[in-house]
Write a structure and sequence with these properties.
single chain, alpha/beta, seven-stranded parallel beta sheet, 12 strands
């Protein structure tokens, strides 16, 4: 029997078992699982010799000492790849990895259907005042149906900020409901935006012309606090704001003000500055806010799909392939040189 020569390590945070099962089928790959709490020495012993670190993407669940930082990379001299457990990679210092010749991969698209469905569910619930009706029925009697009367979404305009894997699926679902779809995305040419089912637009046009504005862009230096008080002010009075992207892209205090003033009719928030948000967060006190716990992409199907994609990508990478979801493609020449030196 072949002795494993390639090492993959992950933490003991929950992961769909399909990941471990796929890695186990490779005779030349071993899998190590380290404890995130209680035994740092044992954890570092497991991590120190790894070739691939499959890191949790949940920034508020993974202790920060296990983030893929420059310090962690330096303590893992044979590390070739950091694999995020999701589409996002908030727990990975990509520049530090790139500088060290370490490839970074994610699982973009693996949970796109689930996130898209969640987005439409928020739009429908908020537009039809389903939340308000449900909550009032649980605490009072005697109100009329007309007091919780909502609106159809057919014929309205949805504006997408980002039209990648998730945004493309949201556009498809929205068109099935009869919405017009606008989209802005600096990484996608106008003709490709049109091919994906949306009318190309600027961010300002999306904000000013849409009845629903939904975020589907990555969190990075260019998008941090992008949707601020000025952006909310540009949105149509009575519009609804949705985000299943990442906390920090919108300013929470500015959103609170836009809702309290009545400028916005409602908001669907799946991502937060702090996850979960504190119970006294002002958005949680509003009946016109649909609040979820960064679980738009957390379904049984999505979790299995993401874990399977991650394992397959790691197996292919360790066999010498170039991963299809490489976050830092500029690292590739340095990565190849290190791979030859480390693995032969």
């Amino acid at each position: 029997m072949m002795t494993p020569t390639k090492r993959v390590v992950r933490s003991d945070l929950w992961l769909n078992p399909v990941f471990d099962e796929r890695i186990a089928r490779e005779q030349d790959i071993s899998l190590g699982i380290f404890p995130v709490r209680g035994n740092d020495a044992a954890a570092w012993d497991i991590l120190a010799g790894t070739h691939v670190y499959h890191v949790s993407a949940a920034k508020d669940e993974l202790p920060k000492q296990w983030f893929a930082t420059g310090e962690l990379v330096a303590r893992c001299p044979q590390l070739l790849c950091v694999s995020s457990s999701g589409a996002g990679y908030d727990t990975v210092d990509v520049p530090a990895c790139t500088a060290a010749g370490v490839a970074v991969v994610n699982q973009a698209g693996g949970n796109a259907d689930s996130v898209a469905e969640h987005t439409l569910a928020m739009m429908l619930s908020l537009s039809r005042h389903m939340l308000q009706c449900d909550r009032r029925m649980r605490r009072e009697t005697g109100f009329s149906r007309e007091e919780v009367m909502g609106h159809e979404i057919k014929g309205l305009t949805l504006g997408l900020v980002g039209i990648g894997n998730v945004g493309t699926r949201v556009a498809r679902l929205a068109r099935a409901f009869g919405l017009e779809v606008l989209a802005t995305d600096p990484y996608v040419p106008p003709e490709e935006i049109a091919r994906r089912g949306a009318k190309p637009a600027s961010l300002q046009q999306v904000l000013e012309q849409s009845d629903f504005v939904s975020l589907h862009c990555p969190r990075d230096a260019s998008t941090l606090k992008m949707i601020d008080a000025a952006a909310f002010a540009r949105m149509k009075k009575g519009a609804i704001f949705i985000t299943t992207a990442r906390g920090g892209i919108h300013e929470e205090a500015a959103l609170v003000a836009a809702l309290q003033s009545g400028h916005l009719a409602g908001a669907g928030i799946d991502v937060w500055d702090r996850e979960p948000p504190p119970l006294d967060h002002p958005l949680l006190a509003m009946d016109n806010v649909f609040a979820t716990f960064h679980n738009a992409g957390v379904t049984h199907e999505a979790r299995r799909n993401v874990a399977a994609i991650a394992a397959e990508q790691i197996v292919d990478l360790l066999a010498g392939g170039k991963p299809p979801r490489l976050v830092n493609p500029e690292v590739w020449p340095a990565y190849v040189e290190r791979r030859v030196r480390i693995l032969g």
